[in-house]
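Residues determine shape. Next comes a sample protein:
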Amino acid sequence: MLRIHFTGRDLGAVRTAAGPDPLWESILSFHRLRDRRGAPAFGEWRTETRVRLKGETRLLGALVPRRGYFPDFLTPPQGRFGLAQGLEALRATPGEQLRTELALLGSGSPALPARAGALSEDDPADLGRLAGALRAYHRAAVEPYWPHIRARAEADRVVRGRALLDGGADELLATLPPMIRWRAPVLEADYPVDRELFLDGRGLLLQPSFFCRGTPVVYRDPTLPPVLVYPVTQVDAPAAAGRGGGAGPSLGRLVGRTRSAVLSAIEHGTTTSELARRAEVSLASASQHASVLREAGLVVTLRHGNAVLHTLTPLGAALLNGGAQGVPGPKGIRRTGTTSGTAPSPRT
C-alpha cells in the first residue's frame, strides 16, 4: 500500500499536469513492450514498435528491470516541459545522485549489468549516450502515437478539472482511478510494497499517463518534487492502427452548421446534456452528433460520475481553429474494448 499524507496546505497545492510527460511515457511504455500479459491492448503496438527499434533497448534494459525499482534520474521533473528539457536534465544528473540510485538498482539484482555500472564513473559521455538511447526509443515507440497519447491525457485533465470545480480538492482526489482511494487526509493506492510519502506542504502533481497500468508510480527519493503518475481514464483499450492522413473517412460526415456548433460547444469539455443545451439540439441529437465526431477522431468521450464527458482531440481542436491542415497524421490508436491491463514496475 502506498500512503500519501496531506496537510491543509497540500490540498491547496494539488495540481494536474498540463499534458503527458514524454520521459514517463517512454519508460512506462518500455515496461509494456516487455509485458506480454497486456497483449490484447498493446499487441499490435508492440509488433510495430519492435520493427522500428534498432538496439536502443540494450542500455534501457540494464536500467529498467521488468519489476521493481528503476532510477529516478530517468524521469526528471523537467520532463513535463518537453522531451528536450527532460533529456537535458538527465545529462546533468549530479554524480552523487547517479551513484546512489545505481547502488539502489544494484541491490535489487545479483549483478548490475556492465552498461549500467559504467554510468557510475561520472563520465558525461555515458549520460549523453543514455540520453541518445532514450531519444531513439521515444522516436520509435512513443512519438508516432503522441497526438493520441496527448488527447487521452488532455481528456483526463478535463475530468479532473471538472471534479475540482464541482467539489474542490477532496472531489478531485476522490475521482482518481479505482486503485487510488482518498481517505482524508491520506491518499491510498495499491502498491507492491508499503510506502509512506509525506508531502509536508509541497503539494502534489497529478501526472496522467497513457502507458501506466495497474498501479500508480511515485519517485523513490522523497526529496524530489512529489508526483503521482497514474493511468489515464480508459473507456476503451488502445491499440495501434494503420497510418491515416487525418481523421479517416468518417471526417466526410462532418458537415453542416449543427455539427459545427456541436464541435464548438465541446471545445472546453461538456456533458451530453450540457452539449444539447449549448448547441440547442435534443439530448438524442447531441449524443448522435458526439458519436459521429468521436468516430471521426475529433472527440474523446470519458465517463464522469453518472454522466459522460466529451472533449476535443488535438485534431478536433485544430479543425475548430482552422488549422486542421497543419496536424500530422501519424499512426493512430484504435479503441477495441475494455482491459484492466497490468501493473507497471513501481519504484519500491
